[in-house]
Design a protein that fits this description.
The chain is of the alpha/beta class and 258 residues long. Helices cover 45% and strands 17% of the residues. The chain is built from nine helices and seven strands. The chain has helices spanning 25-33, 57-70, 83-93, 100-111, 115-129, 133-136, 140-143, 156-194, 210-217; strands at residues 5-12, 37-45, 74-77, 96-98, 199-202, 235-242, 245-251. Mean pLDDT is 82; it is low at 138-156.
């Protein structure tokens, strides 16, 4: 998504958890962290999402006007959308539409450096994609020649969806197996450290200064930058407490609102 300009959208539902002083503040920071320019913002209060476009008809028209006026290349929702809603919005707006989860996965994919982090990101991406395979096959009706769908009428497109799902499942099984092996090694390393040291973890919101503090208290080495999710892996170093005492200090991945 680098170099794109985006319109940000947030729908406030009755059970929504957001900052009333700056509702789009966190999404704006995520978008800027991904290297995308914020061209405009739109909010709507609703009791519940509406149909295939999530937004009300009037807001969809207003959003479409904003996209054209601002020449935005992508619309980013601070809500999680279903495959059919993403498709409906893209057709109505004439541009790419992604939701909050896809944005975060995109950031993670670009930041993951360790094998463990890369495996975790790919697993999350596949889990996000799997339920959306049918929506991705927009040409299914054309492939089947417009034939009716049902028992005994499955065409090549329907068969391809099943193949894709099987490929995703097999890939997930392999990735999870490798991740279990890495996690096992990590657990053994941590267990050996605990025999001689106790462990302290730095936990908090992303971009709150955990890595900077970690580098100040230890020999350093953690990547620190003024951006969300600069840290996507756990780093452990010895922290000298003075008086011959020490502990293992752990820098962790930060969390966000939801």
């Amino acid at each position: 998504m680098l170099s794109e300009s985006a319109v940000l959208v947030q729908v406030h539902l009755p059970d929504s958890d957001f900052d009333h002083h700056d509702p789009l503040g966190e999404l704006r920071a995520l978008v800027e962290s991904a290297g995308v320019k914020v061209a405009g913002e739109l909010e709507q209060n609703m009791k519940q999402p509406r149909g295939a476009t999530y937004l009300g008809k009037g807001k969809v028209e207003e959003l479409g006007f904003m996209v054209k006026q601002l020449k935005a290349g992508v619309v980013i929702f601070d809500n999680d959308l279903s495959p059919s809603q993403l498709k409906g919005l893209e057709e109505a707006l004439g541009c790419k539409v992604i939701d909050r989860s896809e944005l975060i996965l995109d950031i993670f994919a670009n930041r993951a450096t360790t094998r463990q982090a890369q495996l975790q990101v790919e697993i999350a991406q596949l889990q996000y994609t799997a339920p959306r395979l049918r929506a991705m096959w927009q040409h299914l009706g054309q492939v089947t020649g417009g034939a009716p769908m049902g028992v005994g009428t499955r065409g090549p497109g329907e068969q391809q969806i099943e193949i894709d799902r099987r490929i995703v499942k097999e890939r997930l099984d392999r990735l999870r197996g490798e991740l279990v092996e890495i996690a096992g090694r990590k657990e053994r390393e941590v267990a050996s450290r605990r025999e001689s040291h106790f462990t302290v973890g730095l936990v908090g919101y992303t971009n709150s200064g955990k890595s900077t503090l970690f580098n100040a208290l230890t020999r350093g080495g953690a990547f620190a930058n003024d951006q969300l999710f600069a840290t996507l892996g756990t780093r452990v170093e010895e922290w000298n407490l003075g008086g011959g005492n020490a502990c293992m200090l752990s820098d962790t991945v930060g969390f966000i609102r939801d």
